[in-house]
Amino acid sequence: MAALVSGDAGSIVFANAEALKLFGRGERLLGAAIADLLPEWPLAGKGSQSALVDCGGDRRSCRVKVLAWPSAAGAMTAVLVDAEEDELQAGLAAREANLRLRYVIEMLPEAVCVFDTKDRYVLWNQKYAELYADIADHLTPGIPFEDILKISLAGDEMREVVGDKEAWLRERMRKFRQPVSHEEQQLRDGRWLRHDDRRTPDGGAIGMRIDITELKQREEWLSQLFDANPMPMLLCDGDSLAILQANRAAVDFYGFEGAAPQSRRACDMHVEDEADRFARALLDLDGDCEARTVWRQRNTTGGERHVLIYVRRLHEGAERRLLLTVADVSDRVFAEAEANRLAYHDVLTGLPNRMQFYKALSETLMSSGGSGVVVCCLDLDGFKPVNDTFGHAAGDDVLKMVGERLQAAAQGHMVARLGGDEFAILATGDEKNAVDLAERCVGAFEPPFLIRGLALRIGVSIGIATAPADGLDGEALVLEADRALYRAKADGRNTWRMASDIRLTSERVNAR
Q: Is 158 found in the same domain as 9?
């Protein structure tokens, strides 16, 4: 047991090794007042429960036995102290836990501070003191958090950017007293901090200060990549396909106004017959999608565009997001369509050309089985004098008018320009239908053509061949119709002849 002897003045005159160890004061124990070591001194009885105070100021329970006797130097009192083992171990454990907590918060990469139930500082790490250098000298255990904020606001070295100081203080304390609060604060040097304050079960609080400058920079860069991107971009919910955000290029591209993008789905801009197909494609997406399909979309004014859409899957926690980047390829589609049209159409009249005529003839023969196909070859009568007299420009105007009259007479059948003043018609039907068609074409040339104020008359000679009577091969049909055309010209022009009639006449002549 720890043993102490005090004189009649109440100061320690003797302490054994256990006492020195228990109270932790070493030689300084001698001469100390016994009341400083045992706050409840003098004790009520010779053997009682009391409390002792060690050199660190910590209190703990102990059992005390008091013996007093007179001596030549005056009354002497012996005090035997037996510190309760449980309390001793608890005190040691508390000190060890406190040290561990200090080690832990010092090891953390963030600035950390701990508060008691009255919002007073308990401890903080070095990073916290370095972050708030303007109040580091004022940080002491027990100082209220609000007092530290006021000290910071009153100084000239406050790190945060603050406008109205009183309003800032009220809002800061309001958030601090919540069970959980988050706040982002910009510092004067341009850095950003995230305040993360949480209440502990006992009513205290733990605060963390995280430097999010790099995160804010990345957010700014991403925002610039999104908002300033010249290509239309849409951020959509991965399940409902609702548009969550649209960049400026998308707003201009689709003609959105105000909150219009947020009231639409990603498929709403597509033409009716493509909207559902595009929605299914997005919902079934199991990875990023490179644009391969050309989609047709409409803007708010009804204008139609052809687009390629690149899709990237994103995740915000458990939420699935889709980032759509839209490439307008309307010019390319129109250019390709025009190139295709020019490849198969006559530049002057806009009619199908020789290549398109033969392609259509082959497909018609195949689909019809070679039955009921009519080919008419036409050649203008009296066209050369128009060219020679009025020039090629006037001749071109005549050819355009010829094309229009033949299309009206053909009543939906294909009219093609094979070259020069040669035309052809591909139709279906029997010989009667073919004759009616030829008669309409000849009649279409009865009205004169007005060229430079002059009424010019031009005729047309027509040769007709039908399948299967005149063959099942496209080249053969055209050849037969061409022969019939030359017979029409030989028989007086501005008329028509059937290849089958010419063949029968030839066979009769040969028979004779």
A: no
Q: Is the pLDDT score of 82 beyond 90?
A: no
Q: Name the one residue in this structure whose structure tokens are 């061949």.
A: 465
Cα–Cα distance measured from residue 485 to residue 53, given in angstroms and rounded to the nearest whole number: 131
User: Which one, of 461, 375, 370, 445, lies nearest residue 414 by Cα?
Assistant: 375
Strand-pairing partners, residue 245, are 235
Domain presence at residue 188? yes
Task: Check: CB of residue 243 under 8 Å from CB of residue 331.
Answer: no
Phi/psi at 45 (5° precision) = -135, 175
CA dist., res. 60 & res. 88, Å (int): 7
357 plus 325 within the same structural domain: no
Report the alpha-carbon distance of residue 1 to residue 66 in Å, rounded: 13
Q: Which residues on adjacent β-strands are paired with residue 127? A: none
Please tell me whether residues 367 and 482 are part of one structural domain.
Answer: yes
Lowest pLDDT segment from 150-164, 190-204, 389-403: 150-164
H or E element, residue 278:
helix 272-283
Q: What is the CATH number of the domain that holds 171?
A: 3.30.450.20
Q: Contact, 185 vs 162, CB < 8 A?
A: no
Asked if residue 6 lies in contact with residue 12, where contact means CB atoms within 8 angstroms, the answer is yes
Co-location of 429 and 499 in the same domain: yes
Look up the CATH number of the domain holding residue 431.
3.30.70.270
Contact partners, residue 95, CB within 8 Å, separation at least 6? 56, 58
Task: Give me the torsion for CA of 402, 408, 409, 410, rounded to 10°.
Answer: 100
- Domain span holding position 299: 229-332
Helix (H, G, I), strand (E, B) or coil at 509: helix
Q: Does one domain contain both 166 and 293?
A: no
Cα 327-328-329 angle, rounded to 5 deg: 105
Are 254 and 269 within 8 A, CB to CB? yes
Whether 119 and 150 share a structural domain: yes
Higher pLDDT, 374 or 452: 374
Q: In the Cβ-directed half-sphere of 132, how many Cα atoms lie within 13 Å?
A: 24
Tell me: pLDDT of 417 over 90.
Answer: yes
**Beta bridge partner(s), residue 78:** 5, 67
What string of H, E and C letters represents the secondary structure of 93-127? HHHHHHHHHHHHHHHCCCEEEEECCCCEEEEECHH
Q: Are residues 46 and 154 in the same domain?
A: no
- Whether 511 shows a pLDDT value over 50: the answer reads no
pLDDT digits (tens, 9 = 90+) for 232-257: 999 999 899 999 989 889 988 998 87
With respect to residue 171, please indicate whether it lies within any of the assigned structural domains: yes
Residue 340 lies in a domain: no
Asked if residue 55 lies in contact with residue 25, where contact means CB atoms within 8 angstroms, the answer is yes
How far is it, in rounded angstroms, from Cα 20 to Cα 431? Answer: 134
Within-domain flag for 339: no
Q: How many domains does the chain have?
A: 4
User: What local confidence, expressed as pLDDT, does residue 351 receive?
Assistant: 95
Residue with the larger pLDDT of the pair 215 and 477: 477
Cα–Cα distances in angstroms (integers) from residue 186 to residues 163, 234, 380, in the given order: 12, 29, 85
| SS percent in the chain: helix, strand, coil, step 5 | 40, 30, 30
